[in-house]
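Team,

Forwarding the record for the chain on the shared tracking sheet. I've put the sequence and predicted structure together so nobody has to dig through attachments.
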Amino acid sequence: MTQKNNIDGILLLDKPLMMSSNQAIQKIKKKFNIKKLGHTGTLDPLATGLLPVCMGRATRVSQFLIDSNKTYQAKIKLGVKTSTGDKEGEIIEASSARISHDSLSIDQLLQSFIGKQEQIPPMYSALKHKGERLYKLALKGVDVPRKARSIQIHSIKLLSINKNCLEFIIECSKGTYIRTLAEDIANKLGTVGHIDELRRLDINCFDKPQMHAFDKIMDSATIHKYLLPIDSPLRHLMKVVIGKSESKMFMNGLSISVNQTSIKDSDYIRIYDDEKKFLGLGTYSDECISPKIVFNEII
């Protein structure tokens, strides 16, 4: 049996249309014989765009990517509601209601969605009910109660209104279902609607992320040139540099004493040695940094 490759880093994949997130990463895993990898934040098959793939030890910081705000470009087709909330589903309702094409009034309506709110996840989602994915239950015709979840819309920018289509860019918190939001927007316009196109543009823990096309990656002999360092999505966290003796203690799981008045208790902190090598993450309390995620080999 061929030995798997231990590869560490983060790939910013531009997920192609009509491919599930899992299908995409499994193809990459097989192509490059990678031992361990996982994506952070599922994109539907009909959605394209930014899908971070954490490999090797980078999987240990994946939660920071999942928790970050996301930015999408979305197109709603008005007048038609589908079973899945996107164009892949069956048409279950149609409306002939006339919609205003006044950009000012529509923009004002979109702005009314900004802020914190409760959203009920759709049945066609990867969430689980008693161990089974909701979309698998939905395919069987089963509908189960779902608890509303707290989300936040940070901004919505109207791009265009064309016939029965509405296009916008939205920045939102984790856990936001754009398909559900699209239906809510259509309802507030006095009609029904579904997502016609959806593309993830950004995850705000990255600084101007550069995505790499799936086909380009698959045509390459090596994947290393596409990878970002493990600490690349953590730049928003405070950085502390420690000396050689403290580095050894930290790497062995021991707390180290620091005098940093600007650090808040329980904040995650990036820890580097004096050669600028990333050692891991710690939390601060009582003038000490305690290791929380430590990479046994210095990266």
